[in-house]
Amino acid sequence: MADNSTEKIHCLIIGSGPAGYTAAVYAARANMKPVLYQGIQPGGQLTITTEVENYPGYPNGIQGPEMMVDFEKQAARMGTDIRFGIATKVDFSKQPYKIWIDEQKLIEADAVIIATGASAKWLGLPSEQRLNGFGVSACAVCDGFFFRGKEVAIVGAGDTAAEEALYLSKLCTTVHMLVRRDQMRASKVMQERVLKTPNIKMYWNSEADEVLGENKVEALRIKNNKTGEKADIPVSGFFVAIGHQPNSDIFKPWVDMDEAGYIKTVPGTSKTNVEGIFAAGDVQDKIYRQAVTAAGSGCMAALDAERYLSAKEIL
Hints:
- There is one protein chain.
- The chain is of the alpha/beta class.
- The chain has seven helices and 19 strands.
- It is elongated.
- The protein starts with 5 loop residues before the first strand and ends with a helix.
- The model has no long low-confidence stretch (mean pLDDT about 95).
């Protein structure tokens, strides 16, 4: 049944990864009575990550989904109203800002924190999804550590792929790098570094055909685009580095973004070009993309929102 009611709130948080939940903790403690909608993937990208070892405060590491449950519980304990639902449309033309949830419920908010994150682009192989978290990863900085002293493969041709290959080369015995064309898209300096690294083995005109292994990655079947020839490379890990897509489409008519769709914020703040609209986490960060930096920017967004509402004498 359609919910045609309009609800008026001070602070709406859209998204529920480290940025959204941290923003919620700070906003609730500042008595902003935040409402958080969890979105399409409650907990964000960390829910498809297994072991997280690089987040401070967990000396023995923690499973990504478990960590997000901890974040959610903390936000709820502080008084955040956490709800299931997806923001499907917004109108930021005037205050209070209008946000439609699941195309039905209308929220009017004095301040909005966008923490919708980004989604890794995948190749679309069924085996890639089946083994995601079991040797398949879209983040070398997050997961490379688990493949120390092992052979891995990476697919991608841009600066991110080059950076991740170089990162992996310091940990792994061999990095097999697949590039679809006969050249990389990465900047010249990054290409030179990759080509100069002795344990990065290049495969030109090549793509991943299948990830092999029952319960973990055991090999990668590659295919040469020119000859159609296939070969199996024994590897323990397979990294997909073909980019991320920020989850920012519904905000496009209102908020300034770069050409890739990342929301632009005023440097050193979470402020967007629209007053009272703030952005935190991977939806505005294409450089670091770590749980700890997302959490930090969520804190910034809540503090910026609190100052904004106080200055307006709304709080």
